[in-house]
Amino acid sequence: MRVSRLQAEQNKQKVIDVASQLFREHGFDGIGLKDLMHGAGLTQGAFYKQFASKDDLAAQASARAMQSTQRRWEAAAAKNPQDPLGAVIAFYLNPAHREKRMEGCPIAALGSDAVRQNANIRASFETGIKEYLHLLTGWFSEAGDVAVDEAAAAAETSDKAMATLSTMVGALLLARAVNDEQLAGRILQAAAGNVQAAAGIRDAQPGDTQQGPHS
């Protein structure tokens, strides 16, 4: 049966959505096309009508995963407009996020894999990382005092955003790498304390939010 253009596009978007989850769960090289297409409820033969290669799918799936996480950050921040940065810290450095690789941060799940992928896949990560840094920089600016030297203040908040993202991603990666749940929890708490101190946040804790990584 001939598939309409609309149905073909819907199928393509479904494959990208499913691949964005399965790549986070298994890694780029940990799952083949057959299983990716099966996860989307489609045959492997349909793949080449929609994508130039597995790398093409990986680049689009990476972009989708980064966008999905960005929306979750924004949703967490919107629920606590008085302290958006604290809300995102609590959301990200949360034991529930540690357990949900398929729906969690793609940088922590696939960052080490991305290093060995082609330029298009790395570009998807770069674009997403810049968006995350933009959000963090804005929240640091809102939380900070008004500075006399605006240029210096902008550079400082940018540096804080980079350090915060690096700390959060690194902590989540380390927490996932260990079997000891108590140690994993301490890693997340220590990282949360560090970034909260940098932002001047005192009250937020990793377990304070009820919002999981797939909210």
UniProtKB/TrEMBL annotation:
Q: Does the keyword Phosphoprotein apply?
A: no
Q: Which UniProt keywords apply?
A: DNA-binding, Transcription, Transcription regulation
- Pfam families named in the record: TetR_C_13_2, TetR_N
Q: Does the keyword Ligase apply?
A: no
DNA-binding region, residue range(s): 32-51
Domain named HTH tetR-type: residues:
9-69
The protein's matches in InterPro entries, at most eight in alphabetical order, are given as: Homeodomain-like_sf (IPR009057), HTH_TetR (IPR001647), Tet_transcr_reg_TetR-rel_C_sf (IPR036271), YxaF_TetR_C (IPR054156)
Q: Check the record and name the PANTHER family matching this protein.
A: TRANSCRIPTIONAL REGULATORY PROTEIN (PTHR47506:SF7)
Which named protein is this? Answer: TetR/AcrR family transcriptional regulator
What is the native source organism of this protein? Roseinatronobacter alkalisoli
